[in-house]
Structures are given as C-alpha cells and as structure tokens.
Specification:
Layout lengths: L17 H7 L2 H15 L19 H15 L5 H4 L5 H15 L2
Helix pairs in contact: 2-3, 2-5
Amino acid sequence: MPDASSGAARPAEPLTTRETSSESGDDALTNRVIAVIARMQKIPVESVTLDKTFAELNIDSLDGINILFEVETEFGIEIPDDEAKEIRSVRQMTEGIEKLLALKHA
C-alpha cells in the first residue's frame, strides 16, 4: 500500500514475537534474545519463537554455551553456571535474563 506522504510503498512490518511477548513482559528484550539465537545458529529469525526449545532449534550443548556467552556480552550480565545448566528453551533464557537485569538495576 503506498504511503500517502511520499507515494512510496510502505515497508513490511518487521517480524516480531508479539503473539508470545505479552507473557514475557519486554518485547525489546525478547526480540534481542531471539536475534542472538538466530544469528548464532545462522537460522531465520522468524523460525525462533519464545516457545521453542533448544532441541527444536537443533541447539546442542556446545551451541548453547556459545549462545550463553553471546547473550552475556549482549546484555552485560553473567549467568551463573547452575542456572545456565537448566536453560532448555528460548522462554527460559529470556525469563532468566529478565531476572538478572532486574537484579542488576535494583
């Protein structure tokens, strides 16, 4: 559909996880986590959703460690080893990051 002000076609809306992000609270954080996972796994961002498990995304233990390091760098946090071992899904990772960021800013 053309944009009335410029006559140019409007760009398509960016892909997001709107349908699941209302449960996690922070769209921007969720989208950043998904972007990191997609980039590290070299998969399309739209294939990563909040409800996907690492197994469903073919993320093995080595991939998981690399994603963890990247997430720690991205958000300026340190995920404790005992908590890192329990992360098995995008949702768990996102919720854990939310908690760590809340503690960091408290």
